[in-house]
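Revision sheet: C-alpha cells.
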Amino acid sequence: MSYQQIVGDIKNDGLKRIYILFGEEGYLIEEAVKKLKQQLISPDFESLNFLSIEGKELEVDRLIDACETLPFMADKKLILVKSFDGLQSKKKVISDDDEAALIDYVGRIPDFTCLVFYGLSSVDARKKLVKEVAKHGSVLNFERLKENELSKWIAGKFKGHKKEAQQKEIAYMMNHLDYLGKNAGQNLFDIENEIEKIVGYMGEESLLLQRHIEGVSVFKYQNDIFKLMDAIAGRNLPEALERLNHILDEGEAPIRLMVTLSNQIKNVLSAKLLLEEGYNPKMIASKLGLHPFVASKAAAQSSGYSVKRLRELLNQFLNMDVMMKSGRIKDRIALELIVVEICHK
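Predicted:
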C-alpha cells in the first residue's frame, strides 16, 4: 500500500529526494503530504523551508533555484508541486527545453530537499520525467482501499475519536457504503464525513452500535431500501407498501426512490444473467462494479423472477417515469403501483 510506504519512509528517516504521489484515493495522498510537512517543517521557519506551487504555474528555473537553496535551521526543506499536468500523456504544459532541464535535474536534487509532485489521479509511466523520478525517487499509486484495508481504516478513525468500533459494526457500516467496487460513488473524504456524523450521534457513548449507524440519515435510507427490497422479493405486499410509505413520509424524494428501485431491478436482472453463465456473487460484484453486499442481495433476489419478468418490470419503470414527468400520474401513486407490480407473481 503506497500510503504505508511513504509513512514508513518518514518513520525510518528514509525519505527520497523526489516523489510522485498519484491515484484515485486523494484523501490518502493529502494525508501523506500532511505527514511530510509535519515531519519536515517547523512552523517557526515555514516561510524559509517550505514552498507550494500549483502545477499550472510551474517555472522550472524557479523550482530548481528553490531546490538548491539550503534549508534554514533544519535538515531538509519541502517543495510541493500540485496537479502538474506534464506528468500525463500528451500534456504539453512547459517547453521542450524546460522539460529537458527538469528531467536532467531529477538525478541531481540535493539531499536536503524533498520534492513532491502530487494531486493527479493518473500519470503516464512512459514519460521520461516519470521514468526519471522512478529511477531516483518513488512513484506511488494511491489506489482505493481493499475491503480489509477499509475495515482497518474505519476502525482507526473511530479510535481517533476515542470510540471503539468492533468488526461486526464495521462490517455493517461497510455494507451500507458505496466505496468498494469499480463504479463506487464514494471516497474516503465521504466516509470520514459519515464517521463524523456517527460520532456526533453517539455523544458520550464510547462503543459503536448498529443503532448509531442507522441513526445517521444516509445509512438509514440505505437500510430502509434494503428492507423494502427484501419485502418485495418475498412478495410481502403489505410490508412492502408500509416500508415504501415510511420512506416517503420521512421526506425522501419520490423520483430518487423510483431511480433507486429501478437500478436495483437492473442489478437483479444483470445478476440473474451472470448466475446463468456460472458466475458466483463475488464474481458478479467484480463484473458489475457493485459492492459485494449489494451483489449478493441482487443474486439472492433474482431467484424469484424470470429474465422475461425482470425485463417487463424495467419497461414498467420507463412507462411510469414518462407518466410522472408528464403529470399524468401522481408520484406517490406511481411508486405504489410499481411496488404492487413487482410483488405480483
